[in-house]
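Bench log. Compound arrived from synthesis this morning; before running ITC I wanted a structural hypothesis for how MRU sits in the protein. Inputs:
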Amino acid sequence: MNINGKPHRTIWVAGDGMSVDIIDQTKLPHELVIARLATLDDAATAIRDMLVRGAPLIGVTAAYGLCLALRDDASDAMLDHAAKKLEATRPTAVNLRAALARMRARLDAVAPSERARAAYGFAAELADEDVAQNRAIGEHGVRLLRDLRAAKPSSAPLQIMTHCNAGWLATVDVGTALAPVYTAHDSGLAVHVWVSETRPRNQGAYLTAWELGQHGVPHTVIADNAAGHLMQRGDVDAVIVGTDRTTRCGDVANKIGTYLKALAAREANVPFYAAVPSSSIDWSLDRGADIPIEERGPEEVTHVGPSRVVPAGSPVRNPAFDVTPARLVTALITERGVCEASRAGLEGLFRVTRA
Ligand code: MRU
């Protein structure tokens, strides 16, 4: 996607051919800072401290983290150590585990003397695969938006609501939930996006609003609590969210607050879609209740910027994700097409891969 009119990915191999450059998302929207990852520790810290975030980007960063670890020591022991360290950074996004498992499956078969070079090649494949999946999600999703457009009585722009950031910043490029939005906008289908701020870390306000603005997509930021009101008033034509992990039965884990939007959408008869690249499907789980939910530090809730807003001494709880049950999801938008949020729906599209 473009920043100041110049195409960018969120992660790339630096000019020295070994280090990895990322956009430091903790600095957006105020400054565009490129951070350099030179070691395994740099990569683990970037994921844990959310310099990079968003399930697909976390997965690709972990893959490059393995590459960095193998630069100086490509032994089996280092491969094992690096994979464990990266896997421990964040628990909910299945992309992290899946990317590491795929890298290991390929690298275990390569002699240590060839491993570092091979690792960079595999990581680049994963990065390109993410971009291709997201482009396909955009193509499938935009058909749903065209159908909604055709059914809408007024000629006003289609009103899409999203939560958190599931745009190009959450991926290598293009985005998941925002891929249909960008595809619509680029093809001349008028869209307007309601961006919920996404307390406590404000990924909607800081990141989604910034990237939509860079791309020229009309949008309005709302407090999270305004979402139900807007749906009830008929101001929303569809909700599209991303996912950090979707079970094989279609339960969708995503940023905290997603479930409330799905409940409001059902009550207001607004279609609720999740954009799900196959890298975010956990084929080992049936029930969303079994997805590990990251609990983050209290300071994200007690403080807004540098200011404390919670009285000292009041206890705080900060679950970072929630699970929307499949029954509240109108459909899943994947790179293979749109399907029912169910085991039959997902297996219908991905049977070949699973076999
Ligand atoms: O904690 P984050 O910012 O890494 O969480 C990301 C999300 O939950 C996003 O909503 C997104 O949909 C999943 S990644 C495309």
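What the model suggests: The two ends are 35 Å apart (CA to CA). The chain has a mean pLDDT of 96.
ITC booked for Thursday regardless.
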